[in-house]
Design goal:
The complex is a heterodimer.
Chain A: H1 6-21, H2 29-53, H3 62-79, H4 83-107, H5 112-132, E1 142-143, H6 158-180, H7 183-193, H8 195-200, H9 205-231, E2 233-234, H10 236-240, H11 242-255, H12 262-280, H13 287-302, H14 306-312, H15 320-325
Antiparallel strand pairs in A: 1-2
Helix pairs in contact in A: 1-14, 2-6, 2-9, 2-11, 2-12, 3-4, 3-5, 3-9, 4-9, 7-9, 11-12, 11-14, 12-13
Chain B: E1 2-11, E2 14-24, E3 29-33, H1 40-47, E4 55-60, E5 63-64, H2 70-76, E6 78-80, H3 93-101, H4 108-121, H5 137-150, E7 155-159, H6 167-182, E8 186-190, H7 194-200, E9 203-208, E10 211-216, H8 218-221, H9 225-232, H10 236-245
Helix pairs in contact in B: 3-4, 3-5, 4-5
Classes of the chains: A mainly alpha, B alpha/beta.
Bound molecules: adenosine-5'-triphosphate and magnesium ion.
Chain lengths: ~325, ~250
Amino acid sequence: MKSQSIGQLALAAAAVAYLIGVYFASSPVWMGFTINALIIAVVAMSWNITGGFGGLSSFGHAALYGTGAYASAILQVKYGVNAWVGFAAGILAGAAMGAFIGALAFRYGLRGSYFALVTLAFAEVLRICASSFEFTGGGSGLQLKLAPGLANLQFADRTVVYTALLVVVAVVMILTALIKYSRFGAYLIAVRENEDAARALGIDTYRIKVQAMAISGAFGGLAGVLYLQLWLFIDSTVVYGSAISVEALIGPIIGGAGTVWGPLLGTLGLHLLGEGAKHLLPNAPGLNFVLYAVVLICALRFLPQGLVGLAGKFGAFTKKKEAEDA
Amino acid sequence: MLEVRNLSKSFGGLKAVTDASLDVQEGSIVGLLGPNGAGKTTCFTMIAGFTKADEGSVRFKGQDITGLPPHRICALGMIRTFQIVQPFAGLTVQENIAVGAYLHHHNRNEAMSVARDVGKRLGMGAMLDRPASSLTIAGRKRLELARALATGSKLLLLDEVMAGLIPSEITEIVGIIRQIRDEGHTFLMIEHVMQAVMSLAETAYVLNQGKMIAHGPPRELVRDPSVVEAYLGHGAAARLQEENHA
Ligand SMILES: Nc1ncnc2c1ncn2[C@@H]1O[C@H](COP(=O)(O)OP(=O)(O)OP(=O)(O)O)[C@@H](O)[C@H]1O
Ligand SMILES: [Mg+2]
């Protein structure tokens, strides 16, 4: 809902303070860790478009992430295309994959857990394909040539990478806000709240859902390309694996699905938690996923609106002006 | 304005609607009556494009709209409300109405201000910022009407917007509907509240077991033996007659 509260502002301010603080952290570990979290945050924002605003919970957002990453990598490695072109192509490929999955799933009226299963199946099929075909590099994946420079979208300096990612995250959040307060956003939310009522009010719900999948795909593809340009290497497990699909949904759910800040807050919070656990118990790999599961269960049980919803309960502003002329 | 011809619909073996026809003139208020399970709502879902009719046709403003999806029909200017209210529960009242207003107002500020105006006109000014889930049943019924009105549709199909309301609320909504009609809207309304039908509708159709059994001014319909029997059971008309004579 549109009303903001002091609690939410404080939460957002804390996130911004942390992100700025990373520049001054004594150890470079913080920046490296936050860079990874920010890429995941973009996937989370991708999931948030469909899952958060549209109530279309996908369990296979890796399909979009991986498609973006592979599209760019194939173009660069096999066809020698420039990285910036690959970047744009990755976003478009993600959008196309999103629209394709949406068009198929919604054509047959799939909702709820059926939709989740179909998206999961898509991601798995793509993963298997990517690990089998020759032009995707098969089991050994695809490796970009190391060639730092702006023209190749590769940066040797971590601080530059980090800054660029902050800009991307800000842009995606602004786009999310624009969507949320647009006619399209209102229609998408209406579909989530009550699809029959939405149809009665003149909304072409099929089209809205497919468009949402396309936008979500663009964001997801973008995240995949970011990962590729950072690590210069991808394989099927890394970008099409279900770990990405899980991370895509867990951040928004914990942070607040259908909010602008939720995906970032949830993802940062979770990664900090996971990282902390790793340092406390260094000999338990995979512990962060166990922790995620516990946090997710608690969030589903106690925080239906996520962190943003919880913060919203503190110091809500009363909207004086509107209350008066009502 | 609306011409419905020979609509039929079966669910499995059950014939919910058989060969139903009706007409609605522009600027009128037409009632659709009938006992529970008569097939009234099913008629609405077919007219508004929510379910495909097995047979029959629907013309709206002279155009054949049979088989069009609901959003196309709504864009042409006809909209239905739901008997079981369907609010966007997580949104405020104003946001609910705005979803309807967005149909012809693509800009958010415009849609929200249209929503505000419509809400105030329906006496919901004080509730605009409240979540729709906090409304009483009367409020929710009114919200259905407000959302439909905000789309700018000229023909409104109202499915029992007065069910569950107390008499004072009914009087209020009757006044509102009459006012909206005078502003240039047309209504086809399913209604069990006879007092409302009597005071609003010029003509009414009576559906029983899926068939149109009578049609005319509501005052005459309540004296029609076939209508009385449909509501009160076989032989009821005769018994009433006897009692009146006795
Ligand atoms: N989707 C459906 N599937 C199967 N049967 C249905 C369906 N919709 C309606 N029916 C049946 O069709 C018949 C007509 O139902 P309908 O809802 O149109 O009646 P109604 O006149 O609106 O009644 P009420 O006054 O109770 O609202 C009923 O017997 C109902 O059980
Ligand atoms: Mg009904």
